[in-house]
Amino acid sequence: MKNRKTKINIEIVPVVVLTLLSLFALSPLSSFGGDLAEAEGFQTSADGISYPYTQTFTTSAYYSPLPCQQKYATGSYEADIRLNGHGVHGADGTDVYPGMVAAPKSYPFGTKLYIPGIGIVAVHDRGGAIVDSNGDPNRHDRLDIWMGYGDVGLKRALAWGKRNVDITVYGINNELSEQISLVGYSEEEKIAKCGSTVTTEVPDVTLTTTSFVEKPKVEIQIPSDGTMPVNLSSGATGNTVKALQNELKKLNYYKVEPTGVYDELTAHALFKFQQAQGIVSAETETGSGVFGPTTRSRMNEIISLRSYTKLAIETKKGTNSNPAKIPEEARQAYLTNTLAFGSKGNEVKKLQEFLKKSGFFKSLVVTDYYGEITKEAVAQFQIANKIISDKSDKGAGVVGPETLKKINELS
């Protein structure tokens, strides 16, 4: 969309799923009768492609937020707008309507497709993440389906999630009309309400009402020590994503209430964590924003250190735990969290006080902000303690697990 920044891509572990009409169990030809029967004859386009053909696409869903919703994917209207945009027109200027499709540029505007569970649709939109596979055998071309406004649009988008679907492509075929079936559709959805200035009407397409059904959701259990049990990436949902968001929030990278949805905000927060830990250096780097093995291992080190510290504090308060079983660095813990440029809070103040006493922090004033002076002081401390060789090291100026351990040993 012209004013949509990105899409909602949510893994198919939703609280609801679609109940498909019986017609979707049939082949495209028998499902929609005459229109598809007439279009079924093979046609060859100017670029030599024979239609129709069937291939597997990775499909996701998006919607347009409204200010009066009961729930939001990211917790607030403003955050959903930042994530998803207002959504008024497709990239070709077509007014948005339920079932409208965003596709890679290799699929011209007006291309007709049959998507099981949706119906006969047309391409009218583009998107930064909606790209083709570029010959990668491990990927499929992408499609995104607009699911509506407000709560009902969000609910449909969550229900659809992200899935691989075998889709029939008919090319630009004027003999084939759009016939769309969406869950819970009502005529009231033709106009965006809730005080919105958008009064765009949905084009005259055939829509059929079906209903939502609940699906039991199996959640991965978080270990008792709080460590993260699985790798995660954009589109994931559930308690593991919420646990990751909570950890990123504790480290001051994730600024909103955890949602359990691995969205763009989560990926960006994780990138900032990876950057601070020296795992990646740029957001365009492979693995950026992905909670993979290296990032998960580093995160679990931090979680474990925090657990040791908590146990040490409880021991000092007179618990019956045996101090001899607590790691030395935990009993002497001075700082409990990793820190990096941009961090704020009392931990930063304690870090500056430690560095000042050690002769590395040159500012006359101790603050609670991790700025350039603090970063330089940390780098000098790391070099002096042989944690890094010089300031070109990726971890220079970052209080990661090894630097944190050394500070706690010396404090």
Describe the protein's architecture and organization.
By secondary structure, the chain is α+β, with helices and mostly antiparallel strands. It has helices at residues 28-31, 34-39, 77-84, 150-160, 239-250, 264-276, 293-316, 328-331, 346-357, 372-384, 401-410; strands spanning 16-18, 43-44, 50-51, 53-64, 101-102, 112-115, 119-125, 141-149, 163-171, 179-183, 206-210, 212-214. The chain is elongated, with a radius of gyration of 26 Å. Mean pLDDT is 75; it is low at 1-35, 37-41, 195-205, 207-217 and 319-332.
> Helix and strand succession?
EHHEEEHEEEEHEEEEHHHHHHH
Report how far apart the termini are: 54 Å
Number of helices: 11
Q: Quote the average pLDDT.
A: 75
